[in-house]
Automatic annotation (TrEMBL):
Gene that this polypeptide is encoded by: LOC108009187
Domain of life: Eukaryota
PANTHER family in alphabetical order: ENOYL-COA DELTA ISOMERASE 1, MITOCHONDRIAL (PTHR11941:SF45), ENOYL-COA HYDRATASE-RELATED (PTHR11941)
Transmembrane segments: none
Isomerase in keyword set: yes
Keyword Isomerase part of the UniProt annotation: yes
Protein name: Enoyl-CoA delta isomerase 1, mitochondrial isoform X1
GO MF term set: isomerase activity
């Protein structure tokens, strides 16, 4: 069996000790090979990778070996099924290409991601709801469970599913005057436990509980003060540089040891999630289908549209 040196956590969890030691040998060979490749490539231009995705792009900096994954679904990167699927494809591609790390960002000028596309949940059928929620779960676990160093260059607002993606990463840099948070309770809905896990990884429990129950959207400055974001940058370019510096901080660390250490921190959340994921889909369908929730979604969408026309 061919084992990759960068084993997604969800797969590493299922490995036997023998498979793990075999992946260490593979790891050493692959590191040698990729270091040689990197030496050859050093100084070369940025490379746009050949993903067959519609709504994401991946660009690898040949000098640093870091991949930038950009979401590009105007106007607000709301997460429809296509964007969620493209995110997964791009993450897999970055992992397979042995990049040194992944930076998630947005092509929009003022929005990182507006969260789930509410149109996908409104006035639809159960099968569509099942697909939407399953793809959200899949995109989250692909990012949260990646053994690569991950960082989010949050170059705009990041409500709900936007915050979910940002907190699935290990490091966050945000531009000023934007908002980030899990605002589900404000929409009358409950974020399941797995959806809160990234948030709970970075915030003290008391701060997280209050923020989640209030559905609080933090300003950039507030998010920095509580630790929801690690740094503030004055522009997207600066945010990308700071994310690269974070990923670069692992340059001298054995990447398998680094990845497995990350796994130990996240394994419990991942196992819990794997246990309940199907039930969670059923819960979501039941909740999102309720007439009062559908009514609230309709009102929410109308208000968003009215706000846009002002
Ligand atoms: C039943 C469910 C159970 C459990 C779910 C739990 C998990 C849920 C996760 C979610 O992610 S739900 C989505 C939550 N998202 C939001 O509440 C964000 C709403 N959007 C905004 O606050 C703002 O749009 C903004 C992101 C701050 C950007 O503001 P801006 O002024 O730049 O843009 P504008 O508001 O004018 O929007 C432009 C355009 O986009 C439409 N839009 C915005 N967000 C969404 C969205 N999430 N889904 C679908 N469409 C969205 C908005 O209506 C405008 O459309 P228009 O051009 O046709 O008017």
């Amino acid at each position: 069996m061919k084992l990759s040196s960068r084993i997604p956590f969800r797969l590493a969890l299922k490995q036997t000790p023998e498979q793990r030691s075999s992946s260490i040998d593979t790891y050493q060979r692959t590191m040698l090979h990729s270091n040689l490749l990197r030496l050859v490539a050093r100084g070369g231009p940025k490379r746009l990778m050949s993903t067959a995705t519609k709504l994401t792009t991946v660009e690898v900096n040949d000098k640093t070996g870091i991949a930038t994954l950009t979401m590009n679904r105007p106007p607000v990167n709301s997460q429809n099924v296509q964007l969620l699927e493209d995110l997964q494809k791009s993450i897999t591609e970055i992992e397979n290409n042995k990049s040194r790390g992944l930076i998630l960002t947005s092509a929009m000028s003022n929005v990182f991601s507006a969260g789930l596309d509410i149109h996908e949940m409104y006035n639809t059928n159960e099968e569509r709801l099942r697909i939407v929620w399953t793809e959200l779960q899949n995109a989250w676990i692909a990012l949260y469970g990646s053994s690569l160093p991950t960082a989010a260059a949050i170059n705009g607002h990041a409500p709900a599913g936007g915050c979910l993606l940002a907190t699935a990463c290990e490091y966050r840099v945000m531009v000023p005057n934007c908002r980030i948070g899990l605002n589900e309770t404000q929409l009358g809905i409950i974020a399941p436990k797995w959806l809160m896990s990234g948030f709970l990884n970075v915030l003290p429990k008391r701060v997280a509980e209050r923020a989640l129950t209030q559905g609080r959207m933090f300003t950039t400055q507030e998010a920095f003060e509580v630790g929801l974001v690690d740094e503030i940058a004055n522009s997207k370019e600066e945010a990308l540089e700071k994310c690269s510096a974070f990923i670069g901080s692992f340059a001298k660390v054995n990447s398998l040891a680094r990845g497995l250490t990350k796994l130990q921190f996240r394994a419990e959340n991942i196992k819990e999630f794997e246990k309940i994921r199907e039930k969670d889909v059923a819960n979501f369908i039941a909740l999102a289908s309720r007439p009062e929730i559908q009514k609230d979604m309709g009102i929410y969408l109308e208000n968003l549209k009215k706000k846009g026309k002002k």
